[in-house]
Amino acid sequence: MSMELSIILAMAIPAVGAVLIALSGRIPNLRETITLLTAIALFLNVLNLLGPVLDGERPEVHLLDMFPGLAIAFKVEPLGMMFSLIASGLWILNSIYSIGYMRGNKEKHQTRFYICFAIAISATLGLAYSANLLTLFIFYEVLTFSTYPLVSHKGNETALKGARTYLGILVTTSVAFLFFAIAWTYSATGTLDFVDGGILGGKVEGPLMGLLLMLFIYGIGKAAVMPVHRWLPAAMVAPTPVSALLHAVAVVKSGVFSVVKVIVYTFGIDNLVTSGSADWLVYISGFTIIAASMVALRQDNLKRRLAYSTISQLSYVVLAAAILTPISAVGAALHIAAHAFGKITLFFAAGSIYTAAHKTEVSQLNGIGWKMPITMTAFAIGALSMIGLPPTAGFVSKWYIIQGAMSSENFVALSVVILSTLLNAGYFLPIIYAAFFRQAEPKGPDDHGGHHDHHGEAPLPIVIAITSTATLTILMFFFPDVALELAQQMIGGIQ
Amino acid sequence: MTAHLPILQVLIPLMAAPLCVVFRHRDIAWIIVLLVSLISFVISTMILDQVLTQGVISYFMGDWPAPWGIEFRIDAVNAYILLIVSAIGAVVAFYGRHSVTREVPRDLIYLFYTAFLLCLTGLLGMTATGDAFNLFVFLEISSLSTYAMISLGKDRRALTASYQYLIMGTLGATFYVIGLGLLYMMTGTLNIVDLHAKLLDMDGSIRTLQAALAFLTVGLSLKLALFPLHLWLPNAYTYAPSSVTAFLAATATKVAVYVMLRVFFTIFGVDIFEETGLAPVLMTLAIAGMFVASTVAIFQNDMKRLLAYSSVAQIGYIMLGISFLNVTGVSAGIVHLLNHAVMKCAAFLAMGCFMYRVGSVQIEDLHGIGKKMPWTMAAFVVAGLSLIGVPLTVGFISKWYLIQAAMEADMMPIALLILLSSLLAVVYVWRFIEVAYFKEPANPSLKIKEAPLSMLIPLWVMAGASIYFGVDTDMTLGVAQLAAEMLVGGAP
Amino acid sequence: MQYNEIINPGLYNYWIVIFLMMIGFYIVIARGNLVKKLVGLNIFQTSVFVLYISMGKVVGGTAPIFGEGFEVFSNPLPHVLILTAIVVGVATTALGLSLVVRIREAYGTIEEEDIHAQEEDF
């Protein structure tokens, strides 16, 4: 199969899958089978691209000219390759998980759920492979709108309100800032292609460069750099599979992925180093890391705590990119992968607890570790990865970020990383401690939720999914080769 | 035969109109309308082909050569406008069968179709003619039949809306005639190309010329509903039968914009703007319209009225593009003219489907409609996303070009204003989408079926077009670019 | 096109045009009675007729009919144009009046204020 075809198929497979899911909506078993098969087919297809990309090939597809001289075009480069691998691979696990979760909770409108999910994945893949800012923007927006029905899935007032915040912030930022920044870039340079070394060097003067960067960073609302992070906690009203794959992996990673791409391929690292336009970004992302961690400390709702943790972790990637050294850029790329594995595990665990025990608050989790040992063990592994302790994926990426900060003697970044590690430990370890070492509080006689106390593990699909992601989190510590190779190829392109 | 295409384009609907009255039967009338609109469409494609291969077509009425006789003059600009008008005419005619039966009193339907044909005649004539006074006559033909069609709406407010439009429309047309009279005084000609040639040597500071420009601008602004001269539009669109609204929203204001382009660029030329300072005025009004009308739209509970205000805002975008006075800006205006015709037609056709099944387009009556009429609602979502300007829809193409034009004219703040105003569109579109999908219907026992296929097909043709032209822009952008270069470049 | 040079230099007619125009315009805006509004509209249109006819006048010219001994003619074109405009004006008035009849049938009044009282959004 030619690589050009593979690129097109990467978007076409989930899109066709969405149509098939729509057609088979009446028969749930068939519908879920199609979802799974689509996910597997997509992953194999993406895998087909991996070998050539590792060998240094950069397959391209020029789809069509949207404007004269401005095309919808795709090009697989290492970072996009890694992102697409993560998104498509985790989609398989997430689909397995979804089956258990959606059925276990008897959710309505499941067909719509699976359709929108497939479209969102299609958009994510398009974004990962985009060869210019225009293509990136198109898929960025498609991703926003296709995930709206997933966030508002429940349809009650809370869900609608959350979805409104979600859409409001993402659309406002992308239209008012990102679109503006892209148009500005185009009128300044006459191109929007992602080029090694950037396109903006010497095209925009002094402080305007900083302003343009700011427009990009805040325009990419999906990266959730404070103060445009509010949509992420709001999106937690969605069913947990959505929070797990989309709001811990696909959507938010699209954000930081775009930030890294813009910094590396639009501005160019050398250009930013000489102009000093990105200095503020270290402070802003550092602030976001610390502030979001502090907020996470105070959240009792488990998913909200995870959401704030995500905000904080996303800014690691932004921070790593903003340090502007090759080695920290490797860290940024690795952290995209590492955080994906860890955070999806954590969300899977949160959904597992909700499905089996109908508990949503951290304070209700005393002693739950003994009832749901697999779930909570996986949770612990995910949490260790978030903190950055071996033997988990988080350690690898953090190592590179710290290396980068040291090599450029950026002590602000360094102290932020160290301080936030402590904070991460501060909001994750108590959960693990409570789950395993605290007794469940005796219930009063008027407690109607009592019948949930006699629960065991979550349904089998959930357990399979959660075990797999937790394993991946550990495996990435021992075998980071592929990710590392891709990340190094990315900076190979920079130097 | 092919030599007479320009006149046939206008003559066929004109001659067919009395036929409807002769038969006095609504089904026969509908068949006539359908046939005629299809023939018009075919003719317009042939004309376009002819223009693109052989260049400008000049057709002398009764073989009296211009500038004495009336000339039909078709170049790339109006060939495309002809195509749009006749295409939308055909789509709406096909759509109208069910919709009109439901929304127009039965014994008046054949008259409705008569008026429809006359309106089509007028709009096609305005576009095809190369004579400025002849244009006025066609303008009045289309306007008078429009007033009649609006007044056929079932709500009694359709009458007052029609009356209001009649007064303002006639004022606008009369302003146009006054302006034209002043031009005639200066030049002694009414032929558009001849006017251009005569005005070329004249000093733009002559006051009569400036007064003429002022009268023409105000008159046409009334017809195309430029803020704040849009007051007739919301009521007219709200109470007219839905297929009329769809037709008018997509064609009438657009043809008026085309006439405005002709007046500005072909007759007067770009230089007069420097002399008069008209461009900043237009720009201010356009931006004010974008914001005020969009904001008003947010607070509407009647969907047709909401979309009507959105139209006023969208006309603001078109005029904004034109007021940049550069090629990119004018092509942005023209491309948005094409795009907005497509998306607004789709949106109003969807409203017609709701009207047909639910009998109302009040937002509270449409709660949960997304489940009952999924295809109609999906088409509306496409149109709505287009209004917002989401990528892969036509709206995005227009917005991109507008922004580029603003950047090219070194007006960064205006680029930002364009984007901010499009956020208002998110609010008014989403207000409806949210309740249509996620609210429970107010009256769940009511059985509401999907709209009939004969309405869904035209609806999806327009919705499909607003996606198709949002991705494959060769044609629309090509036209707009070509037209803008001709207009701004000063070629007659 | 020599008539341009020997056109009637008097501005008298144009003053009347402006006067009529403003009267008509004022009536359209200020009057609440729907029939009176139409009257105003007619006056407004009439001013344009006068405008066109005045500009066709050539000093010393006769009616544009060829005949022995007549060399100078008035410009007939504006007159013809205005014939068309008059027809359009008549059609508009007829349509307007018929609308007023139907409004009266529907509302029982032709006063804008009364209609306004019955409908919130007119």
UniProtKB/TrEMBL annotation, chain A:
The chain crosses the membrane at residues 6-23, 35-54, 66-93, 113-131, 137-153, 165-186, 206-225, 245-268, 280-297, 306-330, 378-401, 413-437, 458-479. Keywords: Membrane, Transmembrane, Transmembrane helix. Residues 71-114 form the NADH-Ubiquinone oxidoreductase (complex I) chain 5 N-terminal domain. GO terms for cellular component: endomembrane system; membrane. It comes from Terasakiella brassicae. InterPro entries: CPA3_Na-H_Antiporter_A, ND/Mrp_TM, Proton_antipo_N. This is Cation:proton antiporter. The keyword Transferase does not apply. It is found in: Endomembrane system; Membrane. PANTHER family: NA(+)/H(+) ANTIPORTER SUBUNIT, NA(+)_H(+) ANTIPORTER SUBUNIT A.
From TrEMBL, chain B:
Its main location: membrane. The keyword Transmembrane helix applies. One of its GO terms (molecular function) is NADH dehydrogenase (ubiquinone) activity. Keywords: Cell membrane, Membrane, Transmembrane, Transmembrane helix. Residues 131-424 form the NADH:quinone oxidoreductase/Mrp antiporter transmembrane domain. The chain crosses the membrane at residues 6-23, 30-57, 77-96, 108-126, 165-186, 206-232, 244-265, 277-299, 337-356, 377-402, 414-433, 453-471. Pfam families: Proton_antipo_M (PF00361). It comes from the Bacteria. One of its GO terms (biological process) is ATP synthesis coupled electron transport. It is found in: Cell membrane; Membrane. One of its GO terms (cellular component) is plasma membrane. It is a multi-pass membrane protein. The keyword Cell cycle does not apply. PANTHER family: NA(+)_H(+) ANTIPORTER SUBUNIT D1, NADH DEHYDROGENASE. Belongs to the CPA3 antiporters (TC 2.A.63) subunit D family. This is Cation:proton antiporter. It comes from Terasakiella brassicae.
From TrEMBL, chain C:
Keywords: Cell membrane, Membrane, Transmembrane, Transmembrane helix. It is found in: Cell membrane. The chain crosses the membrane at residues 12-29, 41-60, 80-101. It is a multi-pass membrane protein. This is Na+/H+ antiporter subunit C. It holds the Pfam family Oxidored_q2. The keyword Repressor does not apply. Belongs to the CPA3 antiporters (TC 2.A.63) subunit C family. GO terms for cellular component: plasma membrane. It comes from Terasakiella brassicae. The keyword Cytoplasm does not apply. InterPro entries: CPA3_antiporter_subunitC, NUOK/Mnh_C1-like.
